[in-house]
Amino acid sequence: MSSTTGLVKEAAPTGVEPAPRTVQHRAAAVIALARFEARQLFLHIPVFAFLVLYLGFTGWELFNGREGMDEFPVLQDVDRATQSAPQLLGVALLIVVNRTVLRSHRRGTDRHFDVLVMEPWRRTVAHALSVVPYAVITAGVVAFQIVWAGHKPGAVGHPSLAELAVGPLAVLLSGVLGLLLARLVRSSFAAPLFVVGVAILPALLSSGTESPRWQQWLSPVVTETGADPFPSELIGRPAGWHALYLVGLVGVLACAAVLLSGGRSRIVQAATVVALAATAAGVAGQSQGDSAALIAARTKASVSPEKLQTCHEYGRSTYCTFPEWDARAALDWSPVVDRVQSLAGGAAGGERLTVRQRIDATYGLTSDSALEASTTPGTVTVGTRWGGNRVPEFAVGVASVLVAGSEAAAGEWCTGDARAVTVMWLALGGESDPMTAFRNVRLDDSIEGSAVVLSPTSGISMSAEQTRIVRELLQKPRYSVIPKVKSHWTELTSPETSTARVAELLGVPAASKGSADATEDEPCE
Q1: Gap between the Cα atoms of 507 and 525, Å rounded
Q2: pTM value?
Q3: Cα Rg of the chain, angstroms
Q4: What is the mean pLDDT of residues 269-278?
Q5: Neighbours of 363 (CB within 10 A)
Q6: How many CB atoms lie within 10 A of CB 489?
Q7: Confidence label for 66 from pLDDT (cuts 50, 70 and 90)
Q8: Most CB atoms within 10 A, among 46, 87, 186, 463?
Q9: What would the pLDDT profile of 212-253 be if each residue is shown by its tens digit?
Q10: CA angle centred on 136, ends 158 and 278, rounded to 5°
C-alpha cells in the first residue's frame, strides 16, 4: 500500500509544467534515430555482404593490379572507373532501406508511433540520414583509390572531383529512393520489382537505336569507355552538371518522402523548390551535346597532334607527347627504343627516330578507333595507354620502322615477307621473358601457326614458318644471335630475301619435310 501511495505522489501534478522540447532536442532525437537505423542497416545480410564485397574487390584491384596497364594509370580515366562498383552497394541499400521503413507496417506496430513525441516526417528524415554513413564510406574508398593511383610512378593526367563524387552520390540516391518507395507503396515487393525494372527498361528503350544524350545521362552512372585515354582537356563530359543533377535528385526524393510523411513546413517546401531547380539545371546542362570548340579541339589533336605537343630529345631520338605524358617519354618509352635499336645493325643502329604520341578522338570516348600508319620516315607511333601488351606492341612498331623505314611501308608487307622475322627478333630479343611477350603480342595469343602481330598502328602478318623461326631464335642465347643479325643486316632487311634464307643466316635449321611449318610462304607481289 505504501509503494502505491508513493507512485501516486510522484505522478501527482506539481504545478510546474515540463519545458517544451527545443529544436536542438528534436534534432538530437532525429540524429539518434538515424544512428540506430544506420547500425541496423549494417546488420542486414545484403548490406553487410555487398559492403564487404565492394571493399574486398576494390582492395584486391589496388593491391593485385600491379601488372599491365593498371600499373600506368591515367587519372582522368581512373575517376570514371570508381563509379561502377558502388552501384552494388546502392542496390542493397535501396532494398534494405525500403524494408526497414516498412518494418512497423509488416509487424502491425504503426499505431504505437502515435504515442511518440517524434512526428512521422522526422522519422523519415532519420531514415534518410541513416544512408549517409554508407555514402561517406564510399567517398573514403573512392578517395583512397584515386590517391593510390596518383602515387604510382607511372600515373599521368588529372582527375575530376565531380566524377569522383558520382559513386557516393549514387549510393545516397539509392537509399533515399528506397525510402520514397516505402512511403509510396506499402509493400516490400516494390523495391525488388523497381530494381528489375530499372535493369530491363534501359535495354528496351535503346534496342535497335542509340539512346539520345539526355536519356543516357539520366542514369546515375555514365562511364563512357572504349577509346584510349584522352588528354584532360578533350574529355568533354558534363561531370559538374551531372553531379549537380544527382545532388538535386537526392534532395527531390528526400523532400518528397518527407512531404508524404506529413512534413509540410516552410523549410521543407523551400528545400523542395531548391532541389527541383538544381535537378532541372543539372538535366539541362548535361543534356547538351559536345560543343563546337570541343569537336574542333578533338579533331586537331587527332589530325595535327604536333600543334598540341611538346618535344624532347632523349638519347638519339626525339619524343613528342601531349603535356600530361611528358614524364613517360624519358622513363618508359626511351628505354624500349634504346633496347630495340641496340640489336639492330647497319645505319639503323644509330638512326634518329621521332616517337610521336597519337590518338583518334574524332568519335568520342566510346569509339575504339585504330590509328592509321604514319607515312613519315623514321616516325614511330605511341598511344596513350602503357603497360602490359602495349610495351611489346610499341617495340614491334619501333622495329618495323627500323627495318622498313616507315610504318606505312611495314603495313604493306604480305604474309610471306621474310623481314617480319627480323622485326620480331629486334622487338622481342631484348625482353626478359621473350616467349611470353611473343605470345602476348600476337592477336590469337599463340606461338604456333600463322598470325597477326599487333603494333600501335597496322599489324604485321606472320606465316607458320616465320613463327617457327622466331620461336627458335627467342629460345637461343641472345649473345649468339646478335652478331648474326648485325653482320647480315643488309640481307635480313631486303625484300628480296626469302624466309628460308633468313633462317639460314640466323642459324635456324630448316623445317622438317611434311610438317605444317614447312609449307611454302605466299609470294609477295
Answers
A1: 27
A2: 0.87
A3: 32
A4: 96
A5: 13
A6: 19
A7: low
A8: 463
A9: 888 889 999 998 988 999 999 999 999 999 999 999 999 999
A10: 75
